């Protein structure tokens, strides 16, 4: 009985409820990763698949977004990253935070430039707002799961 109680305490420390299959951070990484991989594949099939570059690079419409081959590759890569990070509660927290910070930077660059990111991937206003929403949600999940506070606590316990 005591071992079962210990595992429940371990699960709570990792951000999971006792008996829960996945933490919120793991679920976020898994679902968002799957969606991004699907969007990357569908973007190649129904959106833009060229790899042209340069200032003001443009793409093909995909739903309300503008995509090209590079944009689709980024979706595939970030989706794969999140899927890999979803394996464990601690890596999911780290993955959500990294993803959130990177997408926040992408959002800022998108709003500054307005029509492309680093002359590779086309972006438009709906892209920028979606990137912002994903960044905020990812950072909130990572922080609420103890991503920053938990690492500070672990560091102070080590000393």
Set out the fold topology.
Layout: H1 2-13, H2 24-46, E1 60-62, E2 65-67, H3 69-85, H4 89-113, E3 116-117, E4 121-122, H5 125-144, H6 147-158
Antiparallel strand pairs: 1-2, 3-4
Helix pairs in contact: 2-3, 2-4, 3-4, 4-5
How would you summarize this macromolecular structure in one to three sentences?
Helix 2 crosses helix 4 (about 90-115). The protein contains 6 helices and 4 strands; from the N terminus they run ααββααββαα. With about 160 residues, the protein is mainly alpha-helical.
How would you describe the overall organization of this protein?
The protein has 159 residues and is mainly alpha-helical. The protein contains 6 helices and 4 strands; from the N terminus they run H-H-E-E-H-H-E-E-H-H. It has helices at residues 2-13, 24-46, 69-85, 89-113, 125-144, 147-158, and strands at 60-62, 65-67, 116-117, 121-122. The strands form 2 sheets. A two-stranded antiparallel sheet has the order 1-2. The model is unreliable at 152-159 (pLDDT under 50).
Mean pLDDT over all positions? 85
Strand segment count: 4
Structure classification: mainly alpha
Number of helices: 6
Overall helicity: 55-70%
Major sheet characteristics? 2 strands, antiparallel
Per DSSP, what share of the residues sits in E-state strands of 2 or more residues? 5-15%
Could you state the order of secondary-structure elements as H and E? HHEEHHEEHH
What is the 3D form?
Answer: globular
Rg, Cα atoms, Å: 18 Å
Number of domains: 1
- Main-sheet strand order equals 1-2
Low-confidence stretches: 152-159
Gap between N and C termini, in Å? Answer: 32 Å
